[in-house]
């Protein structure tokens, strides 16, 4: 079997897999022979997605979980080990984006972003890193954003969480280099349900205008697959993917 074929036998875990970039990545990898474990809170959507992937000849399992709970993420990784005996890639994709100005004082929404966007990634690292260290191989793919490179009004806390993803990923890369790869994917404006989490009316309207030029989540899925498919000694540290027409 060629190394190209071997890469497609990899076991890939995806959080936030029930919609958007997570679901698009699952569909793409499923069509190309990767073995998938899909995690999210919405179990019904996961079940439907797994059925779709299996219907096209792919290998996929689902696991209902909430990245805010470390035990859930640990059980997610343990489930993958039980089914496939290894964990090659963890895509830390789950994220929320309830934008608002800081003076709107939506503290609960700030905390929700911190819990999902930062703690969720840390929980993924905590659950999968010991497994990858024991295997002496593995890859973390952490989803940041163009908001992890530049800050804009209403997005201060969201951008802070995505800057944090970049910092955590770079620290992890420096610590585990040699056996384990670390990739940050920073999407520009991408079609997703993220904007639907915005409760602030001004921020919601601004985001609708901002998202008039958007790329499909399959574009981000393609970047994720590219990073996975590189040789073991090649670490694609970061990819920014944005619409050609976007000024941001």
Any overview of this molecule?
By secondary structure, this protein is α/β, with parallel strands linked by helices. Helices cover 48% and strands 15% of the residues. It has helices at residues 3-7, 20-31, 43-55, 70-84, 107-135, 156-176, 201-210, 217-229; strands at 11-14, 35-40, 59-64, 89-92, 138-143, 180-187, 238-241. The chain has a seven-stranded parallel sheet with strand order 3-2-1-4-5-6-7, with helices on both faces. Helix 3 links the parallel strand 2 and strand 3. It is globular.
Defining traits:
alpha/beta; 7-stranded parallel β-sheet; 8 helices; disordered N terminus; Sc_DH/Rdtase_CS; KR_dom
Summarize the structure.
By secondary structure, the chain is α/β, with parallel strands linked by helices.
Order of helices and strands: HEHEHEHEHEHEHHE
Q: Which percent range describes the beta-strand content?
A: 15-25%
Structural class: alpha/beta
Dominant shape: globular
SS elements, strand count: 7
Radius of gyration: 17 Å
Helix content: 40-55%
Pfam family, one: adh_short
InterPro entries: KR_dom (IPR057326), NAD(P)-bd_dom_sf (IPR036291), Sc_DH/Rdtase_CS (IPR020904), SDR_fam (IPR002347)
Protein name: SDR family oxidoreductase
Family: Belongs to the short-chain dehydrogenases/reductases (SDR) family.
Secondary structure elements and pairings:
Blueprint: H1 3-7, E1 11-14, H2 20-31, E2 35-40, H3 43-55, E3 59-64, H4 70-84, E4 89-92, H5 107-135, E5 138-143, H6 156-176, E6 180-187, H7 201-210, H8 217-229, E7 238-241
Parallel strand pairs: 1-2, 1-4, 2-3, 4-5, 5-6, 6-7
Helix pairs in contact: 2-3, 2-8, 4-5, 5-6
